[in-house]
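does this look right to u?? MRU version
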Amino acid sequence: MKEIKTIEFKEDILYLIDQRKLPISYQIFECRTYKDVDFAIKDMVVRGAPAIGAAAAYGVVLAAKEFSNDNKEEFLFNMNEALELLNKSRPTAVNLMWAIKRMKKLIAENKDSAVKDIYKKIKKEADLILIEDIQTNKKMGQIGNEIVGNKSTILTHCNTGALATAGFGTALGVVREAFYSGKDIFVYADETRPRLQGGRLTAWELVQEGIPAKLIADNAAATLIRDGKIDLILVGADRIALNGDTANKIGTFMLSVLAKEYNVPFYIVAPTTTIDFDIETGNQIDIEERDSKEVTYIENIRIAPEGIEVYNPAFDVTPNENITGIITERGIVKPPFKENILKLK
Ligand code: MRU
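got this back:
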Protein backbone atom coordinates (compact mmCIF):
# COMPACT_ATOMS: atom_id res chain seq x y z
CA MET A 1 0.00 0.00 0.00
CA LYS A 2 1.43 3.40 -0.98
CA GLU A 3 1.85 5.88 1.85
CA ILE A 4 0.56 9.32 0.97
CA LYS A 5 1.71 11.98 3.45
CA THR A 6 -0.99 14.59 3.02
CA ILE A 7 0.04 16.41 6.20
CA GLU A 8 3.44 16.33 7.83
CA PHE A 9 4.84 18.53 10.59
CA LYS A 10 8.60 18.75 11.03
CA GLU A 11 10.70 21.33 12.87
CA ASP A 12 8.03 24.01 13.08
CA ILE A 13 6.94 23.72 9.46
CA LEU A 14 3.70 22.18 8.24
CA TYR A 15 4.20 20.39 4.92
CA LEU A 16 1.09 19.82 2.83
CA ILE A 17 0.76 18.02 -0.49
CA ASP A 18 -0.47 20.85 -2.70
CA GLN A 19 -3.81 19.45 -3.86
CA ARG A 20 -4.34 22.36 -6.25
CA LYS A 21 -1.48 21.04 -8.35
CA LEU A 22 -2.17 17.29 -8.50
CA PRO A 23 -2.05 15.26 -10.70
CA ILE A 24 -0.11 17.49 -13.10
CA SER A 25 2.65 18.04 -10.58
CA TYR A 26 3.47 16.82 -7.09
CA GLN A 27 4.42 19.81 -5.00
CA ILE A 28 4.75 20.41 -1.30
CA PHE A 29 3.31 23.59 0.21
CA GLU A 30 5.08 24.86 3.32
CA CYS A 31 3.20 26.62 6.10
CA ARG A 32 5.45 28.53 8.49
CA THR A 33 2.72 30.60 10.21
CA TYR A 34 -0.89 30.02 11.20
CA LYS A 35 -1.89 32.55 8.55
CA ASP A 36 -0.25 30.29 5.94
CA VAL A 37 -2.46 27.46 7.22
CA ASP A 38 -5.54 29.67 7.04
CA PHE A 39 -4.65 30.43 3.41
CA ALA A 40 -3.95 26.76 2.63
CA ILE A 41 -7.40 25.73 3.91
CA LYS A 42 -9.24 28.58 2.18
CA ASP A 43 -7.48 28.05 -1.15
CA MET A 44 -7.85 24.26 -0.89
CA VAL A 45 -4.15 23.42 -0.87
CA VAL A 46 -5.49 21.01 1.75
CA ARG A 47 -9.11 19.90 1.65
CA GLY A 48 -11.40 17.12 2.81
CA ALA A 49 -13.06 17.32 6.23
CA PRO A 50 -10.60 15.34 8.41
CA ALA A 51 -7.55 16.77 6.60
CA ILE A 52 -8.77 20.31 7.23
CA GLY A 53 -9.23 19.49 10.94
CA ALA A 54 -5.71 18.09 11.29
CA ALA A 55 -4.14 20.96 9.30
CA ALA A 56 -5.96 23.52 11.47
CA ALA A 57 -4.63 21.77 14.59
CA TYR A 58 -1.09 22.32 13.29
CA GLY A 59 -2.08 25.91 12.50
CA VAL A 60 -2.68 26.27 16.24
CA VAL A 61 0.79 24.80 16.89
CA LEU A 62 2.35 27.38 14.55
CA ALA A 63 0.44 30.17 16.30
CA ALA A 64 1.65 28.95 19.70
CA LYS A 65 5.23 28.95 18.37
CA GLU A 66 4.84 32.45 16.95
CA PHE A 67 3.54 33.80 20.26
CA SER A 68 5.83 31.75 22.51
CA ASN A 69 7.84 34.82 23.58
CA ASP A 70 4.73 36.72 24.67
CA ASN A 71 3.77 37.08 28.29
CA LYS A 72 0.87 34.86 29.35
CA GLU A 73 -1.83 37.47 28.90
CA GLU A 74 -0.64 38.44 25.41
CA PHE A 75 -0.17 34.79 24.50
CA LEU A 76 -3.74 33.88 25.44
CA PHE A 77 -5.13 36.91 23.64
CA ASN A 78 -3.15 36.24 20.45
CA MET A 79 -3.97 32.55 20.54
CA ASN A 80 -7.63 33.39 20.75
CA GLU A 81 -7.35 35.56 17.62
CA ALA A 82 -5.53 32.75 15.77
CA LEU A 83 -8.10 30.15 16.84
CA GLU A 84 -10.95 32.38 15.65
CA LEU A 85 -9.29 32.96 12.27
CA LEU A 86 -8.62 29.27 11.68
CA ASN A 87 -12.12 28.35 12.83
CA LYS A 88 -13.56 30.45 10.01
CA SER A 89 -11.26 29.29 7.22
CA ARG A 90 -14.05 27.11 5.73
CA PRO A 91 -17.60 26.85 7.04
CA THR A 92 -19.06 23.43 6.27
CA ALA A 93 -16.72 20.64 7.43
CA VAL A 94 -17.29 20.31 11.15
CA ASN A 95 -13.98 18.51 11.71
CA LEU A 96 -12.37 21.94 11.51
CA MET A 97 -14.50 23.36 14.35
CA TRP A 98 -14.07 20.08 16.23
CA ALA A 99 -10.24 20.35 16.11
CA ILE A 100 -10.29 24.03 17.09
CA LYS A 101 -12.67 23.30 19.98
CA ARG A 102 -10.35 20.53 21.19
CA MET A 103 -7.41 22.96 21.11
CA LYS A 104 -9.41 25.69 22.87
CA LYS A 105 -10.31 23.27 25.65
CA LEU A 106 -6.68 22.21 26.04
CA ILE A 107 -5.51 25.83 26.26
CA ALA A 108 -8.23 26.67 28.79
CA GLU A 109 -7.32 23.67 30.93
CA ASN A 110 -3.64 24.69 30.91
CA LYS A 111 -4.00 28.44 31.13
CA ASP A 112 -2.07 28.53 34.40
CA SER A 113 0.96 26.71 32.94
CA ALA A 114 4.02 28.41 31.46
CA VAL A 115 3.68 29.43 27.81
CA LYS A 116 6.36 26.97 26.69
CA ASP A 117 4.52 24.14 28.44
CA ILE A 118 1.23 25.10 26.79
CA TYR A 119 3.06 25.05 23.44
CA LYS A 120 4.34 21.51 24.11
CA LYS A 121 0.84 20.33 25.02
CA ILE A 122 -0.63 21.89 21.88
CA LYS A 123 1.98 20.20 19.70
CA LYS A 124 1.30 16.84 21.37
CA GLU A 125 -2.44 17.27 20.85
CA ALA A 126 -2.02 18.05 17.14
CA ASP A 127 0.15 14.94 16.71
CA LEU A 128 -2.56 12.95 18.47
CA ILE A 129 -5.29 14.31 16.18
CA LEU A 130 -3.22 13.23 13.17
CA ILE A 131 -2.48 9.74 14.51
CA GLU A 132 -6.04 9.18 15.73
CA ASP A 133 -7.44 10.11 12.32
CA ILE A 134 -5.31 7.51 10.54
CA GLN A 135 -6.28 4.84 13.09
CA THR A 136 -9.94 5.80 12.82
CA ASN A 137 -9.84 5.54 9.04
CA LYS A 138 -8.26 2.10 9.14
CA LYS A 139 -10.95 0.95 11.55
CA MET A 140 -13.69 2.34 9.28
CA GLY A 141 -12.04 0.53 6.40
CA GLN A 142 -12.35 -2.78 8.22
CA ILE A 143 -15.92 -2.16 9.36
CA GLY A 144 -16.98 -0.88 5.95
CA ASN A 145 -15.40 -3.81 4.14
CA GLU A 146 -18.02 -6.06 5.77
CA ILE A 147 -20.70 -4.63 3.49
CA VAL A 148 -18.61 -4.90 0.32
CA GLY A 149 -19.41 -8.01 -1.72
CA ASN A 150 -16.59 -10.24 -2.99
CA LYS A 151 -17.21 -8.93 -6.48
CA SER A 152 -18.41 -5.34 -6.34
CA THR A 153 -18.59 -2.28 -8.49
CA ILE A 154 -18.45 0.82 -6.32
CA LEU A 155 -19.31 4.39 -7.24
CA THR A 156 -17.49 7.20 -5.42
CA HIS A 157 -17.87 10.97 -5.38
CA CYS A 158 -15.30 13.69 -4.69
CA ASN A 159 -12.05 12.63 -3.02
CA THR A 160 -12.38 10.75 0.24
CA GLY A 161 -8.95 9.15 0.22
CA ALA A 162 -5.64 9.65 1.96
CA LEU A 163 -5.58 13.18 0.52
CA ALA A 164 -8.84 14.10 2.25
CA THR A 165 -7.67 12.85 5.64
CA ALA A 166 -4.51 12.40 7.68
CA GLY A 167 -4.10 9.13 5.79
CA PHE A 168 -5.90 6.07 4.34
CA GLY A 169 -9.23 7.79 3.72
CA THR A 170 -12.89 7.40 4.62
CA ALA A 171 -15.03 6.09 1.71
CA LEU A 172 -11.90 5.47 -0.34
CA GLY A 173 -10.42 3.83 2.75
CA VAL A 174 -13.18 1.21 2.54
CA VAL A 175 -12.33 0.75 -1.14
CA ARG A 176 -8.63 0.36 -0.22
CA GLU A 177 -9.40 -2.18 2.49
CA ALA A 178 -11.69 -4.17 0.16
CA PHE A 179 -9.03 -4.20 -2.56
CA TYR A 180 -6.19 -5.24 -0.27
CA SER A 181 -8.34 -7.91 1.39
CA GLY A 182 -8.45 -9.58 -2.03
CA LYS A 183 -11.94 -8.64 -3.18
CA ASP A 184 -12.61 -8.26 -6.87
CA ILE A 185 -13.64 -4.63 -6.89
CA PHE A 186 -14.06 -2.07 -9.60
CA VAL A 187 -14.47 1.65 -8.96
CA TYR A 188 -16.28 4.30 -10.95
CA ALA A 189 -15.03 7.68 -9.77
CA ASP A 190 -17.16 10.77 -10.41
CA GLU A 191 -14.95 13.57 -11.65
CA THR A 192 -16.80 16.01 -9.33
CA ARG A 193 -17.27 19.37 -10.99
CA PRO A 194 -16.32 22.09 -10.47
CA ARG A 195 -13.09 21.44 -8.54
CA LEU A 196 -12.60 17.96 -10.04
CA GLN A 197 -11.52 16.28 -6.80
CA GLY A 198 -12.58 12.96 -8.33
CA GLY A 199 -10.82 13.46 -11.65
CA ARG A 200 -7.67 14.96 -10.21
CA LEU A 201 -7.29 13.42 -6.75
CA THR A 202 -9.31 10.19 -6.47
CA ALA A 203 -8.12 9.09 -9.90
CA TRP A 204 -4.54 9.85 -8.81
CA GLU A 205 -4.89 7.75 -5.66
CA LEU A 206 -6.52 4.88 -7.56
CA VAL A 207 -3.74 4.86 -10.15
CA GLN A 208 -1.07 5.00 -7.40
CA GLU A 209 -2.60 1.91 -5.79
CA GLY A 210 -3.40 0.03 -8.99
CA ILE A 211 -7.08 -0.30 -8.03
CA PRO A 212 -9.15 -1.11 -11.16
CA ALA A 213 -11.22 1.97 -11.96
CA LYS A 214 -12.77 4.22 -14.54
CA LEU A 215 -13.22 7.95 -14.27
CA ILE A 216 -16.64 9.24 -15.31
CA ALA A 217 -18.16 12.65 -15.89
CA ASP A 218 -20.69 13.22 -13.08
CA ASN A 219 -23.45 13.12 -15.69
CA ALA A 220 -22.67 9.46 -16.50
CA ALA A 221 -23.55 8.18 -13.02
CA ALA A 222 -27.32 8.01 -13.61
CA THR A 223 -26.96 5.76 -16.65
CA LEU A 224 -24.63 3.37 -14.82
CA ILE A 225 -26.99 3.20 -11.84
CA ARG A 226 -30.08 2.65 -13.99
CA ASP A 227 -28.34 -0.06 -15.97
CA GLY A 228 -27.55 -2.03 -12.81
CA LYS A 229 -23.80 -1.48 -13.15
CA ILE A 230 -23.30 -0.15 -9.61
CA ASP A 231 -23.54 -2.45 -6.56
CA LEU A 232 -22.69 0.10 -3.92
CA ILE A 233 -22.26 3.86 -3.53
CA LEU A 234 -19.74 5.05 -0.94
CA VAL A 235 -19.34 8.74 -0.17
CA GLY A 236 -17.77 10.79 2.62
CA ALA A 237 -19.24 13.57 4.74
CA ASP A 238 -18.41 17.07 5.86
CA ARG A 239 -21.06 17.35 8.55
CA ILE A 240 -23.71 14.96 9.81
CA ALA A 241 -26.71 16.25 11.76
CA LEU A 242 -28.30 14.33 14.65
CA ASN A 243 -31.08 13.07 12.37
CA GLY A 244 -28.52 11.68 9.89
CA ASP A 245 -28.89 14.40 7.24
CA THR A 246 -25.43 14.65 5.69
CA ALA A 247 -23.59 17.51 4.03
CA ASN A 248 -21.06 16.34 1.49
CA LYS A 249 -19.61 17.49 -1.82
CA ILE A 250 -22.12 19.02 -4.22
CA GLY A 251 -23.68 16.26 -6.29
CA THR A 252 -23.93 13.74 -3.45
CA PHE A 253 -27.63 14.46 -2.96
CA MET A 254 -28.29 13.77 -6.64
CA LEU A 255 -26.58 10.37 -6.34
CA SER A 256 -28.62 9.54 -3.25
CA VAL A 257 -31.87 10.17 -5.14
CA LEU A 258 -30.73 7.83 -7.93
CA ALA A 259 -29.64 5.24 -5.38
CA LYS A 260 -33.08 5.28 -3.78
CA GLU A 261 -34.90 5.10 -7.11
CA TYR A 262 -32.85 2.10 -8.28
CA ASN A 263 -32.35 0.37 -4.89
CA VAL A 264 -28.59 0.71 -4.75
CA PRO A 265 -27.14 0.73 -1.19
CA PHE A 266 -25.95 4.25 -0.38
CA TYR A 267 -23.50 4.55 2.51
CA ILE A 268 -21.81 7.52 4.13
CA VAL A 269 -18.34 6.74 5.48
CA ALA A 270 -17.26 9.24 8.14
CA PRO A 271 -15.53 9.35 11.51
CA THR A 272 -17.61 10.35 14.53
CA THR A 273 -15.67 13.65 14.48
CA THR A 274 -17.83 14.55 11.45
CA ILE A 275 -21.03 14.32 13.51
CA ASP A 276 -22.31 17.67 14.73
CA PHE A 277 -24.20 16.72 17.88
CA ASP A 278 -25.34 20.34 18.24
CA ILE A 279 -27.62 20.39 15.22
CA GLU A 280 -30.86 18.53 14.75
CA THR A 281 -31.16 18.55 10.94
CA GLY A 282 -29.26 19.34 7.77
CA ASN A 283 -31.15 22.65 7.45
CA GLN A 284 -28.82 24.03 10.09
CA ILE A 285 -25.67 23.33 8.08
CA ASP A 286 -23.86 26.33 6.63
CA ILE A 287 -23.22 25.49 2.98
CA GLU A 288 -20.14 27.18 1.57
CA GLU A 289 -20.50 29.05 -1.72
CA ARG A 290 -17.25 29.41 -3.59
CA ASP A 291 -15.87 31.75 -6.22
CA SER A 292 -17.71 31.84 -9.55
CA LYS A 293 -14.35 31.33 -11.28
CA GLU A 294 -14.41 27.68 -10.21
CA VAL A 295 -17.25 27.28 -12.71
CA THR A 296 -16.38 29.79 -15.40
CA TYR A 297 -12.70 28.86 -15.71
CA ILE A 298 -10.71 25.66 -16.13
CA GLU A 299 -7.20 26.47 -14.97
CA ASN A 300 -6.71 29.91 -16.51
CA ILE A 301 -8.97 29.42 -19.47
CA ARG A 302 -12.38 31.07 -19.41
CA ILE A 303 -15.04 28.58 -20.54
CA ALA A 304 -18.20 30.63 -19.97
CA PRO A 305 -19.14 34.01 -21.40
CA GLU A 306 -18.35 37.21 -19.52
CA GLY A 307 -21.47 38.55 -17.81
CA ILE A 308 -23.01 35.20 -16.86
CA GLU A 309 -23.93 34.84 -13.19
CA VAL A 310 -22.95 31.69 -11.34
CA TYR A 311 -24.37 29.63 -8.46
CA ASN A 312 -21.54 27.58 -6.94
CA PRO A 313 -22.38 25.79 -3.69
CA ALA A 314 -19.51 23.52 -2.60
CA PHE A 315 -21.75 21.07 -0.73
CA ASP A 316 -25.29 19.76 -0.58
CA VAL A 317 -27.31 17.97 2.06
CA THR A 318 -28.49 14.41 1.55
CA PRO A 319 -31.66 13.76 3.55
CA ASN A 320 -31.46 10.87 6.00
CA GLU A 321 -34.21 8.90 4.21
CA ASN A 322 -31.87 8.43 1.23
CA ILE A 323 -29.06 6.97 3.35
CA THR A 324 -28.74 3.21 3.90
CA GLY A 325 -26.22 3.56 6.70
CA ILE A 326 -23.36 5.60 8.12
CA ILE A 327 -20.09 3.71 8.50
CA THR A 328 -18.11 5.08 11.45
CA GLU A 329 -15.13 3.79 13.41
CA ARG A 330 -17.62 2.69 16.08
CA GLY A 331 -19.82 0.63 13.82
CA ILE A 332 -22.44 1.09 11.13
CA VAL A 333 -25.25 3.42 12.14
CA LYS A 334 -28.62 2.44 10.67
CA PRO A 335 -32.03 4.09 10.92
CA PRO A 336 -33.57 5.33 13.12
CA PHE A 337 -30.59 7.66 12.81
CA LYS A 338 -31.30 10.09 15.63
CA GLU A 339 -31.67 7.33 18.21
CA ASN A 340 -28.58 5.51 16.97
CA ILE A 341 -26.40 8.60 16.43
CA LEU A 342 -27.09 9.73 19.99
CA LYS A 343 -25.58 6.45 21.21
CA LEU A 344 -22.24 7.66 19.79
CA LYS A 345 -22.20 10.85 21.82
O1 MRU B 1 -14.41 20.86 -0.87
P1 MRU B 1 -13.68 19.66 -0.37
O2 MRU B 1 -12.79 19.04 -1.38
O3 MRU B 1 -12.98 19.93 0.94
O4 MRU B 1 -14.83 18.63 -0.07
C1 MRU B 1 -14.52 17.36 0.43
C2 MRU B 1 -15.67 16.46 0.52
O5 MRU B 1 -16.80 16.82 0.30
C3 MRU B 1 -15.41 15.07 1.00
O6 MRU B 1 -16.30 14.18 0.43
C4 MRU B 1 -15.58 15.05 2.53
O7 MRU B 1 -14.74 15.98 3.13
C5 MRU B 1 -15.31 13.73 3.11
S1 MRU B 1 -13.68 13.19 2.79
C6 MRU B 1 -13.01 12.42 4.00
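Residues 141-342 form a domain with the Rossmann fold fold (CATH 3.40.50.10470). idk if thats expected tbh
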